[in-house]
Design brief:
Number of strands: 32
Radius of gyration: 28 Å
Mean pLDDT: 94
Low-confidence stretches: 1-8
CATH architecture of the largest domain: Distorted Sandwich
Oligomer: single chain
Structural class: alpha+beta
Number of domains: 3
Strand content: 25-35%
Bound molecules: zinc ion
Helix content: 25-40%
């Protein structure tokens, strides 16, 4: 049915309600899921009980909008706070988990407005309650549940425009009304629209008009539609809010903006934002799933209204993480992200399995309790195979040029060894200056880590996470790298040794940093880091290995680090004697895992150990710094997961005319450990060189494994 659009130009279509979260077929399927599957029944009982409990609770909307979640951190320790007991009407205690001290909010400053965070939670809870009450109404047909949803929605319609606009920094006139930024306003509005849709048929014309004019359209017109953000996880949420209101009101113009806008729409987000390996372009595991969480509500609403947004690239977003995961099914914490266990995302895979039917997803569901919202609304009730998830995991080395991850992997299942060198695109605003950094996993543990991220309101985010020093890569002149895109020069296997050679790209003007990583066995990894500069610089190679330093036998004196970004956050720093040919250090993760780090001191090297930061200023990770003042150099070092002593010998090579080639171009390394030995030549520029051991032979390969005694 075509009606006159609200702007008088665009056509309007009246879609049958409900059509956003579920249509009438979806409601029927939900009823049968609750009747047949124990897990769905359990979720339903919990959900409907919570709605019943809310029925008699008065609706009391907060007096103001909420604060930004990233401001909810302890100013001293950088740790996320938790809400304590209520002190007054809109005032609570807030507890820091590090100092166990109690903080009180100060609404005059956004970074201290902790009560504003509690208020944000209350706005979110009311929106969710409207959805839940709407669902219970649809399943039971009882008017009292529709009434509850209606009461919440109309209370917001009466109140919404009285909440002042405010942003993440507390500045008035911009940001959001219920929330402090368009992203969060959109997330809230998605729930409001879904709740309204579930009870739409019980609303009078006047009530619908009030919701439309005093809440839905002002939220879009003032906050969510203006200044779109292009290809970005936030725009995906905005699109869903815009599109859901479009389907709810039958406004074809809004639907078209949400889905087909040529710069910002849903289809363009998938086309441009999903890389060829299925990963979201921001390069942060957390934002990958946050983006999916922003996309799905529009895909479902469109599906209910006859538009298929379940494109192959949407499916790729569920396949990509299975290939990138560590052997324990956890995604690494590169860029602005924590570690992401895939198990925690199993609810999104419920929807993916229902729409794409990939057996690989079923294993994740089989190992979960299936108690999430998407399982309840969309979950398949046919029996699931557990075996499928294990087969989805890779067990061999693989390279993913789209995102720029070179993964070296050996060994079976969770006991395998997994090294991921990151060389790809910077990742926009959520990227870190960390080219050629890596995360190393072995024997069920993360051994070498990235700092991940702190809350964006915490100074640790700028002073640590976003510095190059917080990563396992090179820092030049104590200044962080420029955002850059590197490339993989070589990736392969020679006689059982898997290796990758990656170029960090334009990380500093006039500096080229090429890392060769070789996994010799499940215990042994060799790094040859070749750096060439246009002039002399201070080159710091940083490495963070979990656990705590084993300090026995140390000949070291305490030193104070500089005030440069990142360096000022280092703790317990010591300088070590480096006159020996090699230096060996160890950290202790647990009784069985005490990996050693062996450095070849083939050139004068200043060695510094200390501790960097993990989640808070008290949660520390051992850090090792190799410092050289040089123009061209090669750092050669090895990590032995079984803690064995490793011998390293570095030598150069000669070109065809008998001139020696610098180590920064061609480095030959002899490594001995536990009676085995390897001789490896790293030659990233593929210079024609004579091999010291076979002078008659010229080689041009990236990497030559000359000998490997078994
Ligand atoms: Zn604290
Ligand atoms: Zn990072």
């Amino acid at each position: 049915m075509l009606l006159a659009g609200s702007d008088g130009i665009h056509a309007a279509t009246a879609y049958p309600h409900p059509c956003l979260l579920l249509d009438t077929n979806g409601i029927a399927a939900l009823k049968s899921r609750i009747a047949t599957a124990a897990w769905a029944r359990a979720s339903w009982v919990e959900l409907s009980n919570s709605v019943v409990r809310a029925l008699n609770r008065p609706i009391e909307l907060p007096p103001r909008g909420g604060n930004w979640s990233h401001n909810y951190v302890c100013p001293t320790h950088g740790a996320r706070l938790s809400q304590g007991k209520q002190l007054a009407k809109w005032e609570w205690e807030h507890i820091c988990p590090v100092g166990h001290h109690v903080l009180h909010g100060d609404p005059s400053k956004a970074t201290l407005d902790f009560d504003g965070n509690a208020i944000a939670g209350i706005h979110g809870k009311y929106a969710q309650e409207a959805v839940n009450a709407g669902l219970v109404y649809q399943v039971t047909g009882q008017q009292r549940f529709a009434q509850k949803a209606r009461d919440i929605l109309l209370a917001y319609a009466a109140r919404y425009l009285t909440y002042p606009l405010h942003d993440n920094q507390g500045k008035p006139g911009r940001g959001g009304r219920v929330a402090s930024q368009p992203l969060t306003e959109a997330s809230w509005l998605i729930d409001i629209a879904q709740g309204a849709d579930l009870v739409w048929n019980t609303l009078s014309g006047e009530e619908r008009k009030s919701l439309e004019d005093k809440l839905l359209r002002p939220a879009l017109d003032e906050i969510i539609l203006p200044r779109p953000q292009g290809i970005h996880n936030i725009q995906c949420r905005r699109n869903s809010a815009i599109g859901l209101v479009g389907f709810l009101l039958g406004d074809e113009k809004l639907i078209s903006i949400a889905i087909d806008d040529p710069a910002n729409g849903f289809r363009k987000q998938l086309e441009k934002g999903v890389l060829d390996d299925g990963m979201w372009l921001e390069g942060a595991s957390g934002y990958h799933f946050f983006t999916i969480a922003g996309l799905w509500s529009l895909a479902e609403a469109a599906r209910n209204c006859g538009i298929n947004l379940y494109a192959p690239k949407f499916q790729a977003m569920f396949d990509g993480p299975l290939a990138l995961a560590m052997p324990n099914f956890v995604l690494p914490n590169f860029n602005d992200s924590g570690m992401v266990p895939l198990q925690n995302q199993s609810d999104l895979y419920e929807l993916a399995y229902a729409r794409f039917h990939q057996p690989a997803y079923a294993g994740l569901l089989a190992e979960s309790d299936r108690r999430g919202q998407l399982a309840l609304l969309y979950g398949e009730t046919a029996p699931l195979s557990k075996a499928a998830s294990t087969s989805a995991l890779k067990s061999a080395s693989h390279n993913s040029p789209a995102s720029g991850y070179a993964i070296l992997q050996r060994g079976e299942g969770k006991d395998g060894t997994w090294l991921c060198v990151k060389y790809g695109p910077h990742g926009g605003g959520h990227g870190h200056p960390d080219k050629n950094t890596f995360v190393l996993y072995a024997r069920g543990e993360v051994v070498a880590t990235d700092a991940g991220t702190h809350a964006y309101g915490s100074p640790l985010h700028r002073d640590w996470d976003k510095t190059t020093l917080a990563h396992n890569t090179v820092v030049v002149d104590e200044t962080s790298q420029e955002p850059a895109t590197g490339k993989c020069l070589a990736f392969g296997t020679e006689r059982n040794v898997d290796y990758c050679i990656t170029d960090g790209g334009a990380i500093y003007k006039g500096v080229r940093f090429i890392r060769t990583a070789a996994m010799l066995t499940t215990n042994l990894i060799l790094f040859i880091d070749q750096i060439r500069c246009e002039g002399p610089h201070t080159l710091d190679l940083a490495y963070h290995q979990m656990g705590e330093w084993k300090t026995n036998g140390w000949k070291a004196s305490p030193i104070t680090c500089s005030a440069a970004a990142g360096y000022s956050r280092l703790q317990q720093t010591f300088r070590h004697d480096s006159k020996l040919a090699t230096s060996t250090f160890k950290t202790r993760l647990n009784e069985k895992l005490q990996p050693s780090i062996t450095l070849a001191n083939n050139e004068p090297t200043e060695i510094v150990t200390g501790y960097g930061l993990l989640k808070t200023t008290e949660d520390l990770v051992p850090m090792l710094l190799q410092r050289r003042h040089a123009q061209n150099t090669a750092f050669v070092w090895a990590v032995a997961l079984d803690g064995t002593a490793v011998e390293l010998q570095v030598s150069g090579a000669q070109d065809g005319s008998g001139n020696s080639v610098e180590l920064s171009e061609v480095a030959q390394v002899e490594l001995k450990a536990k009676g085995q030995s390897w001789t490896i030549l790293a030659n990233p520029s593929q210079r024609a060189v004579k091999l010291p051991e076979k002078p008659g032979e010229m080689k041009q390969a990236f990497l030559v494994l000359q000998s490997a005694s078994e």
